[in-house]
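Today's session is about reading a structure prediction critically. Students often jump straight to the picture, but the first step is always the sequence itself: look for stretches that repeat, for charged clusters, for runs of hydrophobic residues. Only then move on to the predicted structure, which in these notes is written as discrete structure tokens rather than atom positions. Here is the chain we will use throughout the hour.
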Amino acid sequence: MASIDGKDPLQALDVEERQRLKHLEDQVIDILLVLDATCDTVVALHEKYKQFCLSAEHDVETDEIDFIETALSEKQQDVISNRKKLETLHSKVQGTTNLVSIVITFSRIPQVLIDVLASQVIQSTGSWKWIFLERAC
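Below is the predicted structure for this chain, in token form.
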């Protein structure tokens, strides 16, 4: 496939896709940092509230304490759950970045070399899958 400007279209794809994936990865990392700060804030609020309730100067009803403590605990669990989901997303973005790199690398290898390598892999392993597994690791 030829490009208008004479550049290899896969090089353009390579740069563009890697930039988009890097931007996405940066955004996920930023959100992870925000969630860490949010979790720290919820924990600090929870601890301060417990201190407030234990203080002899304040007379807070038990129902109010249970409601507020339950709400703070739930919010802390929500933040932790969202962080785990984002960690999974971050891992997937990194995997996609690696996959794009592998595809770009394979696309730049001349077909003759691919055929030679494939025949050697098939002879030594009896399967195509090994070439992809070894390349990915």
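Discussion point for the tutorial: Residues 1-6, 133-137 have pLDDT under 50 and may be disordered.
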